[in-house]
Amino acid sequence: MASGTGRVLLAYSGGLDTSVILAWLIERGYEVICFIADVGQEEDFEAAKAKAVQVGARKCIVQDLKKEFVESQCWPAIMCNAHYENVYYLGTSLARPVIARAQIQMAQQEGCSAVSHGCTGKGNDGVRFQFAYAALDPDMEVIVPWRDPKFFNTFAGRQELLDYAAKKGIPVSSTKAKPWSMDENLAHCSYESGLLEDPDTTPPTDMWKLVVDPEKASDQPERFIVEFAKGIPVKLEYTENGNPKFATEPVELLTAANALARRNGVGRIDIVENRYVGIKSRGCYETPGLTCLRKAHIDLEGLCLDREVRAFRDQSVTIEYGRLLYNGLYFSPEREVLQSYIAKSQENVNGRVRVKLYKGNAIIEGRTSDSSLYDMSESSMDELGGFLPTDSTGF
User: Which residues pair with 224 in a beta bridge?
Assistant: First the structure.
């Protein structure tokens, strides 16, 4: 990366990497505007804005993208039960298209000649942003410090970043005592690097930010009802301090589901996954509300979805949709084709599911639907109903 005099819009989190990158870009002569995408992370945005200006940013812009994130990313993921390698529910992957699209639009609006981000060369996010930028504005210059030898030879690891931040007086939450990195949005929080790179090291108990340790969760179960319309969560009924509550607005609904799951220890996983760039990575994830809503949706499909439609979707759409999201190919024609099938497959997925939460478990207790394909009389072992024993001849 050569020295420059252009205006750059930096995707900024206020964390260690992007704070160091902000200072680094300014040292090289760039005018930097910081951009913070509010996708539901629990963060002091005013403090992050103040830090950006303190380090030297021309200004720092915060854009609320929560509603777009939930409606355009989280709900379609639930509709097709999206996952990567069976267990990862794509929390980070889901947010990247929303962030990238807003960043490009803001860069164009602010007259920037380049965009930048703090993703490393070893992770998936750098690829996700690169693909998204190229699809949205092929002429926009992309500055990636972690791919610049001058940068990564200076900052060989997180310790060097922490030392540089200390020298520059940049306050950061990552410390030498807690050297892992985090990424958070309304759907989840991820943890990686540092001591987590040893796959046989148990995560420290104080690492987990969102979800209560299941062993320390309440000894009393907690229940809720979620209603779906065409596969989309449209209403959550629950109890708060003994008072009946409900949520229908998308952000409020997912936020309420998060609160229920978090205090009952639901949504933690610890995995080793295959990154798109060709290396394995150990990641710890907290995905509370999405885990519960996804499980309820899968259950309701058993009642409402045609067998062959479900089998085709599971084998040909769900896995591929998750792979495309994970690999950063959201802005691709194949993703658009898959999304159209997802919507079509969910036309009959309407109804309500009752869920019990207890010490890390989301347990389905019942379901009902006006679109049900289930016939209790036909399925009964106590009456013939409309399906005679002779009807199974030849199977």
Answer: 238, 355
Query: What are the pLDDT digits (tens) for 74-132?
Result: 999 999 999 999 999 999 999 999 999 999 999 999 999 999 999 887 889 999 999 99
Angle at 75 between CA 105 and CA 98, to 5 degrees: 15
How many CB atoms neighbour CB 41 within 10 A? 18
pTM equals 0.93
* Separation of alpha carbons 180 and 46, rounded Å: 24
Residue from 19, 93, 116, 181 carrying the catalytic annotation: 181
> Quick count: other Cβ atoms within 10 Å of Cβ 322?
22
Of the candidates 16, 14, 19, 21, the one whose C-alpha atom is nearest the C-alpha of residue 47 is 14
- 365 membership: H or E segment, kind and range: strand 361-368
Active site residue 147: no
- In this prediction, residues 179-196 reach a mean pLDDT of 91
CA separation for the pair 81, 95 (Å, rounded): 16
DSSP type of residue 139: T
DSSP state of 208: -
Q: Are 78 and 294 in contact (CB under 8 A)?
A: yes
User: In angstroms, how far is CA 241 from the centroid of its own chain?
Assistant: 29
CA dihedral 188, 123, 182, 159 (to 10 degrees): 170
Which of these is catalytic: 125, 137, 183, 299?
125
Would you give the end-to-end CA distance of the chain in angstroms?
67
| Tokens (6 digits) for 334 | 């194949």
Catalytic residue among 13, 17, 101, 183: 17
Catalytic residue among 13, 19, 96, 369: 96
Count how many Cα atoms sit within 13 Å of the Cα of residue 85 in the half-sphere of its side chain. Answer: 14
What amino acid is encoded at 56 in this protein? Answer: G
Residue with tokens 């990686």: 192
Is 96 catalytic? The answer is yes
Calpha distance 80→233 (Å, rounded): 13
Q: Given this model, what pLDDT does residue 15 score?
A: 83
Report how far residue 303's alpha carbon sits from residue 293's, in angstroms, rounded to the nearest whole number: 16
The pLDDT of residue 1 is 47
181 annotated active-site: yes
Closest of 136, 139, 99 to residue 10, by C-alpha: 99
282/194 Cα distance (integer angstroms) = 11
